[in-house]
Specification:
The structure is a homodimer. Chain A is an all-alpha fold and about 375 residues long. Chain A has helices at about 1-10, 15-40, 45-55, 75-95, 95-115, 130, 135-155, 160-185, 195-220, 225-250, 255, 265, 270-280, 285-295, 300-315, 320-340, 345-360; strands at about 120, 125. Chain A has a single domain (about 1-10, about 20-360), classed as Farnesyl Diphosphate Synthase. In chain A, β1 (about 120) and β2 (about 125) form a beta hairpin.
Chain lengths: ~375, ~375
């Protein structure tokens, strides 16, 4: 596993064949899923359509058309690529509506999470609640959930009902994950265990990525154990993604992440590397706990950069960075193992592996 | 129609055979649907289960068991009674899960509406957001919507998919209705038309009552035109209910409504009789517009009761009360006409007529 990561580090993003393959898959996904999404959203009543079109980047706040920047479409890409890996091009084609449904669920949770977390920026634009208010952002999210499950209810494919049941169960898990996340952020830095934060990350990030892969497998007519293996593949991939996202949130290059350096630390976020560090029992853990107990910015702006650097160093010295990278590698190994159980032929697994590598190797 | 209402007024609530029949139907509905609801809610993750059990009145805020006061179950009663009317006892039995799904959707909207409207009391208890906070009330609502559509996705009955598609489309309409309601409350009293407020009431109240009846018809295997007639029956019944609810909100006996007299007027709510009065072009309409333009309570507590009485009188003199009662009677006539298209035998329509009379004749 260590060699895998070492080798991966030697490749630069642009030249990696996997990275190129992933980019092609994502672009092709957008081209096939966007028309389904637009069709569904255009059928909404005017008030809900307007908010959805803004959120997806297809309209400006004043209702004029916009170029659109509706995210990377990783989840629908996983639906289609899993369907193709297990059932060929016909299964991919059959799963288009389900891919749109998964993307709608993802965006419903983004609309609601932004309201709850008071996040003001999403995909480089003001979040919907800052433009339309809390009420309309909540209602648009509710409508997108209904639209997603309604799409599947209208789909005559035999996989539609089990896919819908899985997606509905996944929404419940996403809600529990978001609850755990917000509840955890209100607790003291010493009160959160590593198990808790891993369970939360699996519910909040792993569940929908696993569900996307499982839905693709269902549309390929795969047997139950392959659907379960694809779900497990996605969950492990999702956790690896979250671990690396958290590492980037602390040590990533602000020019590439688009977020100020150390903003997660400034917000005292109990991210995975931070909780690993806090629970490490090292002297650096005590130092980190002390820093986290103080509200950020207490010492004035001149000290802020220095404080963030000290905090990041404490996480690193307490082993949080290494732990997260070893965990991420371990999760990727588990993901590949699960995938190999359902898709024995490496050629057929290629697309899913490219997406796995894409989501877990960004700007670290 | 006038005779219908006159006759209805002569009957007192307790002695009316329809009222007794409705009470029996509602009690029987609770007895058959509550176990389905409990089963679904008990399967939620702990954090979401706790909020749902509180909202349904099955637990106190501290998690200890409560007697439960989970509403009147009118919507699931309509599902089951429509199924029985068109398909007999076997259809009623088959529709139990769908009835629970409709009740879950209703309760998801209550959880979210209470957050948006900042309502602090629901079924004589503090609303969920006042106990658990906005975030958890929103998440529990999201989870209940998923639970509802998930129940239908797991139901092997051939009506489950079309019922799920209808219920999902209904959620979208409910969202648009709630949007219109909140947007309208922010506008000036002279800026709202009667058409707008009728459309809003149909979306917010009529849609789910119509959907409940249509879902029952689907589980009875009824042909498309009967499903549409049952939907129209429920929509008209829902509008009649809303009209009478609005009349009660102004002239109802506070001892029977549980709300202070004239609280809708004090809140300057643009209810149906108020908008009818405001748009009547009468001198009383101008007086009402002037009263509504002033914030309530401006003149001190001693004047409040007098002001509410003056406002109620202005609505009445501008014809708002008569209009609402004539409209309600008209909607009930339309409802009965729609019902007779799908259920020719009055004996089979009896249960639905009893429920129609129950919801439209409370404490007026």
């Amino acid at each position: 596993m260590a060699e895998f990561l070492t080798e991966a580090k030697h490749r630069t993003g642009a030249q990696s064949p996997d990275r190129h393959e992933a980019a092609v898959i994502l672009e092709r996904t957008r081209a096939s899923v966007d028309p389904e999404l637009r069709l569904a959203i255009d059928a909404l009543p005017g008030s809900m359509r307007r908010i959805a079109l803004y959120h997806f980047g297809w309209e400006h706040a004043d209702g004029t058309p916009a170029a659109g920047n509706p995210g990377k479409a990783i989840r629908p890409a996983l639906v289609l690529t899993a369907a193709a890996a297990l059932g060929g091009p016909a299964a991919r084609e059959a799963a288009l509506r389900a891919a749109a449904a998964v993307e709608l669920v993802h965006n419903f949770t983004l609309l609601h999470d932004d309201v709850m977390d008071r996040d003001t920026t999403r995909r480089h634009r003001p979040t919907a609640w800052t433009v339309f208010g809390d009420t309309d952002a909540i209602l648009a999210g509710d409508a997108l959930q209904a639209l997603a499950l309604g799409l599947l209810a209208e789909d005559p494919h035999p996989a539609a009902a089990p896919a819908s049941a899985r997606l509905a169960a996944c929404v419940v898990e996403l809600c529990a994950g978001q609850h755990a996340d917000t509840a955890m952020e209100r607790r003291g830095p010493g009160d959160v265990t590593l198990d808790e934060v891993l369970t939360m990350a699996e519910a909040k990030t792993g569940a929908l990525i696993g569900c996307a892969c499982a839905v693709g497998a269902l549309y390929a007519g795969a047997p139950g154990e392959d659907v379960a293996a694809l779900d497990a593949f996605g969950r492990e991939a999702g956790l690896a993604f979250q671990l690396i996202d958290d590492v980037i949130g602390i040590w990533g290059d602000p020019r590439r992440t688009g977020k100020p350096a150390g903003s997660d630390l400034a917000a005292r976020k109990k991210s995975l590397p931070v909780v690993a560090a806090l629970t490490s029992g090292t002297p650096a853990a005590s130092e980190l706990a002390e820093l986290y107990a103080m509200p950020y910015g207490k010492e004035g702006e001149a000290q802020d950069g220095e404080e963030i650097a000290r905090t990041a160093l404490a996480v690193e010295r307490a082993g949080g960075r290494d732990w997260a990278q070893v965990q991420a590698a371990d999760r990727m190994a588990r993901a590949m193992h699960e995938l190999s159980r359902a898709v024995a032929d490496p050629a057929e697994a290629g697309g899913l592996l490219a997406l796995l590598e894409y989501v877990t190797r960004r700007s670290t």
